[in-house]
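Researcher: Please generate the 3D structure of the following complex. Treat every line as part of one assembly.
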Amino acid sequence: MSKLKNDTLIRALLREPTPYTPIWLMRQAGRYLPEYNQARARAGSFLALCKNPDLATEVTLQPLARYPLDAAIVFSDILTIPDAMGLGLYFADGEGPKFERPLRAEWEIRDLTAPDPTAHLRYVLDTVSQVRRALAGSVPLIGFAGSPFTLACYMIEGQGSSDFATVKNMLYQRPDLLHHILSVNAVAVTAYLNAQIEAGAQAVMVFDTWGGMLSHAAFHEFSLSYTARVIAGLKREHEGARVPNIVFTKGGGGWLESIAATGCDAVGLDWTVDIGEARARIGARAALQGNLDPAVLLSSPAAIQREAGAILERYGLGNGHVFNLGHGISQLTPPENVSALIETVRGLSGSYH
Amino acid sequence: MSKLKNDTLIRALLREPTPYTPIWLMRQAGRYLPEYNQARARAGSFLALCKNPDLATEVTLQPLARYPLDAAIVFSDILTIPDAMGLGLYFADGEGPKFERPLRAEWEIRDLTAPDPTAHLRYVLDTVSQVRRALAGSVPLIGFAGSPFTLACYMIEGQGSSDFATVKNMLYQRPDLLHHILSVNAVAVTAYLNAQIEAGAQAVMVFDTWGGMLSHAAFHEFSLSYTARVIAGLKREHEGARVPNIVFTKGGGGWLESIAATGCDAVGLDWTVDIGEARARIGARAALQGNLDPAVLLSSPAAIQREAGAILERYGLGNGHVFNLGHGISQLTPPENVSALIETVRGLSGSYH
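Model: Done. Output below.
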């Protein structure tokens, strides 16, 4: 595989010197781009797009054709693992993800096994390989997975929820069952991310979308401890190159120290945290990724410059910062505002390095 | 007015010694109680119930007839102020609150004025007086209002939202307009809470339901600074009795120090914060109220005992804790689980005092 021409992201995640602050955007290949919507229409559905390596490669590369981003992230969904476990992922029109066969009976939970990614998630690994070849070393490719707890939320609830009452009911009444699911998920996520690394992913990220709705104690017991198992099991090097990892818990601003203590290379921040305070709390234990409010991208170039500039200033001098949003980009984002953001970060960040 | 027989809540909010940890529950008069649903059916609608002092008094007292709670909270809605401003509050069937005339044009925003609570919110003040008389000093009565920012969210968006994109767009593009709305709201909330105190409320609470969706900087500029104006303008004493106040920001766990720095008597905690850590951070600057995950009340008496006991233990020895949920009680809560919670807190908390 070709050597990286732009390794700014990798170096920033490893807290090594970089000439500027690298930037990529969560969900950067997505519905705010007209070319994405065309590809999705051709695929027929979001899930068909995910499962077709040619089309998934095409949409992964779309934002890089438009913008000078410092990374690609493989186009996929966090719920590919439970789908590969046989739960039957589908997307009803205009709604979020659902499962045909959510975990209900105790025997279904006891029967759960981690899928072999090289067999059941081949399409993701094929996409990773194809994107990696297409990038030809221009920028690194990020692989990702949902956290064991976030996967469990959908596997138990069967769909998204405002309060995940079914999940919480299991957590408080049958913690043994939830722990069993989480143990299987941790094995599955670890194997899946390692397979993505072997297929060509040069950094990996764990998305803990729902850990932030837990109590302090429950977050540590049911979410973070399993994310920590994943981090402990990840390959840190592949073909002579370091492969850094990132853990992002939305709503996890109160727990940055314990997230960093998993040994991850970088901690993702949502937009509610002051990145300067986060840096002071984390110290040299991890790099930080974030943390612009995605709503800023719906406003104006002037506001984008002001808000992005404030984040760079709050982080301050030195390395270890990857600029990103605090959550996925909104589908309502005008594409030209993404240009304004990248220009701002590229233009202003050099003086901090 | 009669002197308080049970002043445990007031004393705990003022960090004075109490024989046990007082308890009340956010939204304790609500849909989980069959007698509430009957009263609401008689009223015809939620809003008709709020606006009828006789019925509002009846439902305020319902949970106190069932449970040995340490406080009543006046039955009302956080959106009574914008309704009194002429925005036309209504509730569509099975949906959240909406306004017929949300703030859209700049002239509408410039025309906004704080309503005189003794004229336009008379029904709330009448309810406060009636409840106070009916309680006859058994337990204190809490008055409340939405925070200036939370009111603005609904006034601008016209209804609830998952991201309040319209509000954030104004925040980033026209901060001058948002500041104007918030200034008017701060005056209105202060006058409204002071009128509730004069009508008989013995403690008051500010609900900042949506401040937690803001960035760190925006929270301080657009939410907390206006809540601080309210706190600074509140009567602290009425008819010789101290009237403590409470500020609750859902998702505000990262900002407890600055919330306490408003000078409020107590800080409300959602369930994501460890109450022991919160106490260490806040020190002697404020009492704490919270912080059981409302989902625990959907489980079993055994889980309730374990989780409520853990909160009492984490808070530890000493005064200044008011037990509560970390958010409003779920309508799916079995009423007998509320009994289990109150018994647990009453039974276990004495040993910490």
